[in-house]
Design goal:
The chain is α+β, with helices and mostly antiparallel strands and 199 residues long. It folds into 2 domains: 2-110; 112-198, Alpha-Beta Plaits (2-Layer Sandwich). The chain has helices at 2-18, 20-31, 47-66, 88-102, 104-107, 140-150, 179-188, and strands at residues 127-135, 156-162, 167-173, 192-198. Strands 2-3-1-4 form a 4-stranded antiparallel sheet. It is elongated, with a radius of gyration of 24 Å. The N and C termini lie far apart (62 Å).
Length: 199
């Protein structure tokens, strides 16, 4: 039983670890320390292995819990009811928690507030579009983090980040902000601008 409890703890830990790269930016935003957002982005390449390990551990524990037990004819006292931590209910709660953690990257973006901005552009000729190549983004939460930070700048008309393409395309009024200010805002998130392409 103790080994099962250790496996349960290990399965939960790997589920959390598998999504740390996407959980950290949300906590960083809530805490106001956006610079630590990309701290665990190095975990992204091993995420499939962590997910697989979590599924194997929880699958094994469910097999242990649901496999039929051999009945022995004896006049022994009835077995004691298992403690809550050893119950199917607790295993069910941990399994649901693991699923929520593993799925976190797919819904992380909902934690970022949508910045409603009113942009007044006086000269269309002032509008510039720049593509920033960014390293460290691993999920939609990372995209939202970059977009949220850039949208705080005055003069940003539109910003679109993509973790799949490793970039952000920013349209801005160059009379109100500039490329260096936008790059600084992106770098402040903890992700790094590696290149800039002016369109």
């Amino acid at each position: 039983m103790k080994s099962n409890n250790k496996l349960l703890g290990l399965g939960t830990l790997t589920a959390i670890t598998a999504s740390l790269c996407c959980i950290t930016p949300v906590f960083a935003l809530l805490a106001g320390t956006t610079g630590i957002a990309s701290t665990f982005s190095w975990l992204d390449p091993i995420r499939p292995y962590l997910i697989g390990f979590t599924v194997l551990v929880l699958g094994f524990l469910w097999y242990q819990k649901l496999k039929p037990t051999k009945e022995i004819d004896c006049d022994c006292e009835n077995e004691k009811k298992p403690r809550f931590i050893q119950s199917k209910t607790f295993l069910g709660i941990v399994t649901m928690f693991a699923i929520v953690m593993l799925a976190f990257p797919s819904y992380a973006h909902v934690f970022y507030p949508k910045a409603e901005k009113q942009i007044v552009v006086f000269e269309k000729s002032n509008i510039e579009a720049v593509e920033f190549k960014i390293s460290g983004m691993t999920c939609t939460g990372c995209e939202e983090h970059v977009t949220h930070e850039v949208n705080k700048l005055s003069g940003v008309v539109k910003s679109t980040a993509s973790y799949e393409n490793g970039n952000a395309i920013i349209e801005f009024d160059n009379s109100k902000t500039d490329i260096m200010e936008i790059e600084t805002a992106i770098n402040r998130t903890g992700y790094s601008v590696t290149d800039k392409i002016e369109n």
